[in-house]
Amino acid sequence: MREATKHRNLTISGVGNAGGGVYHDVKIKGVGSIQGDIECAYFKVDGVANVYGQVKAQHLHIRGRSMVEGNVTSDEVNIEGEVSITGNCESETFRSHGAVTIGGLLNAGEVALRLHGTSKAGEIGGGVIRVKKAGRLSFFSRSCKLSVEAIEGDDVHLEYTRAKVVRGNNVYIGPGCSVDLVEYQNNFRQATGAKVLEQKKV
Amino acid sequence: MEPLISKKELLELTSISYGQLYRWKRKNLIPEDWFIRKSTFTGQETFFPRDKVLSRVDQIKNMKDDLSLDELANVFSPNLDDISVPISDVVERNIVSGVALELFKTHHKDVQILSFLHLLHIYVMDAALQLGDISRDEGHIVLEVLEHHGAKFPDNNFDVVIIRKLGSTTCLLASGSTELFVDSGAKVVARMSIASHVEQLQMRLQQSWGG
Known about the structure:
Order of helices and strands of chain A: EEEEEEEEEE
Number of helices of chain A: 0
Strand content of chain A: over 45%
Distance between the termini of chain A: 37 Å
Oligomer: heterodimer
Largest interface: A-B, 23 and 14 residues
Number of strands of chain B: 8
Strand content of chain B: 15-25%
Helix content of chain B: 40-55%
């Protein structure tokens, strides 16, 4: 990723609009919208942010609600709240607490999703993939669910997930899951109450 | 149509894991357009161009102990604009042959510093010369076509095709996956993929810097 230290910061406090571009820090507190591709070292949202373009950020922290109409590339993504990305999302780590919608592929070395409400993704691929229900105190916990076409990873641990295919070395299909096909290399475990139509060791 | 390999087969054959494959994809070590989505009876599956992806995975596995993944990414998709070599070094560093360079010099008398594109054109022509596919005179044709039309293809994704009929030779450029058919009196003498020559040249440049 480009060395961005020489670039200026973009701060939106309150309600504001900005164009895309290359920045060092991008901070949105309140309601912000960005028209165009954006590249930065640090992208932080407290509130609501909409980006109409690609996002490239070394660190991406979102608290609140965000929408990206495009792809996201990052080293580290942390989400507390509700995020939707229409394209693909690539990151070394992707951690979220809340509801995530990804139109295309979520590709990350480490994926950790704590589900509140309804999450969706086209596909999830990576090294370690963990999907769990958020804590019991959560207001939304009754309806938490992830639906995804396919999940592929080395270590896959799923709860409350609806998937057509899950492939991996070590696969755990936990409570609330419904999976059509599991393909695993080493290890497969299934919680009581998890629905798996077909399982294959390959 | 080139033969394809499914993702599952690829992982089995090369004994890499999903995690590695996805990491390499993130680092652009395996280009996006090699991931070919097809629907099969088990749903969507991903396929790759067999030969390309196998040799790429092999290269990555061989080099990943010495180079970081980011450095590797640079080998496969380098910033080509940054590269330039003084003309006096080209033969010395064994990038192209002296004969090929002389041919180039007859076109460009006053060029002293060669850009990557220059080097690539000479390198491709040199490769054909060394294989005995073309004569020196025909080398001029190849150079000329490459220089005038090579830039029209995005991402260097095209082939140089050399066709000979009744002793006369012509050279044309065709985008990567185009199929070509010629009449029975004509012969396709050589078809060279520019993308793979870009990679080879890149490796050669790297070696000559390293050594």
